[in-house]
Amino acid sequence: MPSWYLTLVRNVLAYTGKSSLLDVWPNLEVFFHGGISFAPYREIYKNLIPGDQMHYMETYNASEGFFGIQDEPGKPDMLLMLDYGIFMKFIPSDQLGSDSLRPSTSAK
After folding, report:
1. Is the pLDDT of residue 104 over 80?
2. Sheet of strand 79-80, all strands in order from the earlier edge strand to the far edge
3. Of 57, 74, 99, 107, which is most buried, counting CB atoms within 10 Å of its CB?
4. Which residues have C-beta within 8 Å of that of residue 33, sequence separation ≥ 6?
């Protein structure tokens, strides 16, 4: 979670006396995060890890399993992980909130 990593990052910087994680790890170029939205933390991380080489990659995980990953840097889309042994049931959006679901007649 970005909020938890922020605590770790700040402690690493305090311990090393550095102002940037790139001063600690000059080859740092990817940060995988998930659990909560990264949007409120993006600017904070850009200040702590300045430079254009950094890639922020989102994951969608939960205690029930691992559901998806952002598989292309720079694109917010996530790839649904269908082969991780998790049963997923999809319903047409026009049936959301319905008490009785109708079987789909065609794949869309």
Report:
1. no
2. 30-34, 55-62, 65-69, 79-80
3. 57
4. 1, 2, 5, 56, 57, 58, 59
Cα distances from 107 to residues 7, 44, 97, in angstroms, run 46, 43, 21
Q: What is the pTM of this model?
A: 0.64
Please identify which residue in the block is written with the tokens 């989102």: 58
Give the tokens for residue 21. 């994680």
Question: What's the confidence (pLDDT) of residue 24?
Answer: 93
Residue 24 C-alpha from the chain's centroid: 24
**pLDDT value at 56 more than 70:** yes
**Structure tokens that stand for 52 in this block:** 């254009």
> Cα–Cα distance between 57 and 18 in angstroms, integer?
24
Does an H or E element contain 32, and which?
A: strand 30-34
Across residues 87-104, what is the average pLDDT?
Answer: 74
User: Residue 103: what are its φ and ψ, rounded to 5°?
Assistant: -65, 145
